[in-house]
Amino acid sequence: SQKIEQNSEALNIQEGKTATLTCNYTNYSPAYLQWYRQDPGRGPVFLLLIRENEKEKRKERLKVTFDTTLKQSLFHITASQPADSATYLCALISGGYNKLIFGAGTRLAVHP
Amino acid sequence: DVKVTQSSRYLVKRTGEKVFLECVQDMDHENMFWYRQDPGLGLRLIYFSYDVKMKEKGDIPEGYSVSREKKERFSLILESASTNQTSMYLCASSLLARTETEAFFGQGTRLTVV
After folding, report:
1. Contact predicate A66/A24, CB 8 Å
2. C-alpha angle with apex A58: A8 to A16, nearest 5 degrees?
3. Are A69 and A5 in contact (CB under 8 A)?
4. Residue A2: predicted pLDDT
5. How far is CA A30 from CA A58, A74, A105, B50, in A?
6. How far apart are CA B26 and CA B22, in angstroms?
7. CA angle at residue B95 from B33 to B73, to 5 degrees?
8. Which residue of A has its CA nearest to B87?
9. How many helices (H) and strands (E) does chain B have?
10. Is residue A106 within 8 Å of residue A41, measured between CB atoms?
11. What HEC string does A42-99 produce?
């Protein structure tokens, strides 16, 4: 069956360190993958998109990698700050009509 | 400023009631989605629509139906609410024409069925 898996356990890190979140998928062949941020009680907000032919994408302190052989994307936040504390979700398109499917998300807590 | 607006932030309904959740977007997007979000299960797709009057089942459509009479509005209907439908419901929209399209979400409706 098709699955998108993210670490269900919360990731706790110290301010200033790099946070790395993992997204693995099975039985999909996505042309691209997206990452969203979700704060408690709010809807997700789009952060980054990476295409299958891109190994790496950066936006300010964010970096995303996409390995179609491993069927994995890694999401990095460098020089993390307490304001980066949130749940981060990966998503990909399944089938036609741009049907968007999400992983369960990983909660990140950055401690001062 | 682009917007997806859900009609209620919080809703409490009784078991057996028919419940309507409304979502409106002002971006002229073709795609609209309804998800529910539960702890540990993430966002699960209930239904989506790629055009007026068109709909496709998501992963968990049982107990739900949808209506899209106008492009900007997508309604989720709980035909007979049950306690296991207590959840956070999120509406989203996106462009169909562009394959590399991001989704825009509403603020969510927290539904409690008692």
Report:
1. no
2. 65
3. no
4. 74
5. 19, 15, 18, 19
6. 14
7. 45
8. A41
9. 0, 11
10. no
11. CCCEEEEEEECCCCEEEECCEEEEEECCCCEEEEEECCCCHHHCEEEEEEEEECCCCE
Chain A contact for B5, CB < 8 A?
no
- Nearest Cα to B8, choosing from B112, B110, B84? B110
The bridge status of strand A106-111 relative to strand A11-14 is parallel
Please measure the distance between the N-terminal and C-terminal CA atoms of chain A and give it in whole angstroms. 41
CA B79 to chain centre: 14
Mind listing the pLDDT tens digit for each residue in A45-80? Answer: 999 999 888 889 999 999 999 998 999 999 999 999
What percentage of residues in chain B have a pLDDT greater than 70? 96
Place of tokens 């992963």: B59
Are residues A103 and A87 in contact, defined by beta-carbon separation less than 8 angstroms?
A: no
Token reading at A10: 């919360």
> CB-based contact (8 Å) between B11 and chain A?
no
Kindly state the average pLDDT of the residues B39-60: 91
Tokens of A21: 């979140």
Pairwise CB contact (< 8 Å): B99 & A46: no
Task: Using a CB–CB cutoff of 8 Å, tell me whether A31 touches chain B.
Answer: yes
